[in-house]
């Protein structure tokens, strides 16, 4: 892809990672996937993301911006995500990743919009990270793309199954996930084009902000869903995902 402009590549990889949401949504809406399988994929995806955060994002933010910039950004991202997630949870989006607990519009008016906004809140930091990863060496971090892709499949799958049970139409479900996939591409493009104008310290802080938001998202949403169904096996599956991403990063490097 060397002949393709970098900004196009950034948008493409963001779209690829975001398309996993739509892929998972199609599977969750049209097929009855066992909840244990969903939970296992979610636990594995969580481990992959945690590994990418530890060895790709936070380490890079520290190397480029120093500890203070990294720490402030990391805590700030977690704080902003937690506040936004708390507000959305109060409006019906608390169980947006769960396949059996989402409220219908009749039960909680406005919950559908809150779920959609919550999914967008989860996805934007991940997509921006893809674009930021291309600023240094001009090549995308395949570990980051793979980690986000793997975490997006069970998110779309579980949420779409829950939306269907709550009585939401196929048009509504696929409209949401298709739209978020497109926005993911745009967010990745923005991460590359906008932040290449800024200093390494600002890029490092922004990377740390996104990393903090992603980690808070994992602990608030994905890991509880995985543990609720997989129980004692959730930890082992998460560790397997972590190890797989670590190995991929070392082999790729």
- Helical segment tally? 7
* Shape summary: globular
Give the number of DSSP strands.
Answer: 0
Radius of gyration: 17 Å
Look at the structure and give the mean pLDDT. 82
> Strand-and-helix sequence, N→C?
HHHHHHH
Characterize the main sheet: none
Descriptive report:
- By secondary structure, the chain is mostly helical.
- 81% of the residues lie in helices and 0% in strands.
- It is built from 7 helices and no strands.
- It has helices at 6-30, 35-93, 111-132, 142-165, 170-193, 200-230, 234-252.
- The longest helix is centred in the N-terminal third of the chain and has 59 residues, at 35-93.
- The model has no long low-confidence stretch (mean pLDDT 82).
The gist of it:
Helices cover 81% and strands 0% of the residues. The protein has 253 residues and is mainly alpha-helical.
Strands, helices and their partners?
Blueprint: H1 6-30, H2 35-93, H3 111-132, H4 142-165, H5 170-193, H6 200-230, H7 234-252
Give the tags:
253 residues; mainly alpha
């Amino acid at each position: 892809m060397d002949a393709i402009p970098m900004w196009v590549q950034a948008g493409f990889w963001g779209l690829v990672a975001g398309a996993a949401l739509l892929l998972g949504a199609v599977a969750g809406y049209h097929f009855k996937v066992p909840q244990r399988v969903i939970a296992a994929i979610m636990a594995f995806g969580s481990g992959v993301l945690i590994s990418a955060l530890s060895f790709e994002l936070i380490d890079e933010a520290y190397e480029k911006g120093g500890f203070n910039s990294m720490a402030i950004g990391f805590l700030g991202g977690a704080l902003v995500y937690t506040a936004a997630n708390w507000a959305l949870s109060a409006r019906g989006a608390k169980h947006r990743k769960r396949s059996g607990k989402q409220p219908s519009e009749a039960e909680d008016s406005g919950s559908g919009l809150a779920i959609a906004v919550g999914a967008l809140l989860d996805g934007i930091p991940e997509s921006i990270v893809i674009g930021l990863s291309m600023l240094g060496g001009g090549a995308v971090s395949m570990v980051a793309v793979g980690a986000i892709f793997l975490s997006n499949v069970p998110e779309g799958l579980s949420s779409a199954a829950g939306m269907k049970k709550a009585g939401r139409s196929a048009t509504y479900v696929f409209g949401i996930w298709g739209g978020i996939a497109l926005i993911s591409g745009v967010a990745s493009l923005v991460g590359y084009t906008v932040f290449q104008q800024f200093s390494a310290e600002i890029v490092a802080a922004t990377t740390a902000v996104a990393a903090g938001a992603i980690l808070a998202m994992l602990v608030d949403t994905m890991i509880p869903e995985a543990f609720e169904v997989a129980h004692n096996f959730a930890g082992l599956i998460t560790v397997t995902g972590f190890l797989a991403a670590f190995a991929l990063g070392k082999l790729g490097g």
